[in-house]
Design goal:
It is globular, with a radius of gyration of 14 Å. The strands form 2 sheets. Strands 2, 4, 5, 6, 9, 10 and 11 form a 7-stranded mixed β-sheet that branches. The longest helix has 7 residues, at 108-114. It has 1 helix and 11 strands, in the order E-E-E-E-E-E-E-E-E-H-E-E. It is mostly beta strands and 129 residues long. 5% of the residues lie in helices and 46% in strands.
């Protein structure tokens, strides 16, 4: 069965950190650009960080730039999202998504802005005191 699985979510105090991981079952992430999207209740889904197949290009939304870092280890078939300086407004369900669009046409910014890709089930992140 082909699927993406997110892990690492939880409850954290404002200013704290979490590290989310995305793993793949049934396929290799190395063939895909990977994005982390999030959606809070009553809000639209937002692409927060995206990374190209070879990690040569990354994109971050303005809301997380400087606080979140996306990275990938193709040998381990994982893509991580390190989240530092968390704020209550970062609370959401976080999804990873895999996009097989041609990299010469679809940039990491395109992926995040257009929310391209096949998402997993998500992991809840709650930032609260």
């Amino acid at each position: 069965q082909v699927q993406l699985v997110e892990s690492g979510g939880g409850l954290v105090h404002p200013g704290g950190s979490l590290r989310l991981s995305c793993t793949a079952s049934g396929f290799y992430l190395s063939y895909y650009a990977i994005g982390w999207f999030r959606q809070a209740p009553g809000k639209e889904r937002e692409g927060v960080a995206c990374i190209s197949r070879n990690a040569g290009s990354t994109y971050y939304s303005d809301s997380v730039k400087g606080r979140f870092t996306i990275s990938r280890d193709n040998a381990k078939n994982t893509v991580d999202l390190q989240m530092n300086g968390l704020k209550p407004e970062d609370s959401a369900v976080y999804y990873c998504a895999a996009d097989d669009g041609p990299p010469e046409v679809i940039s990491t910014q395109d992926m995040c802005v257009m929310l391209r890709g096949y998402p997993g089930q998500g992991t809840q992140v709650t930032v609260s005191s």
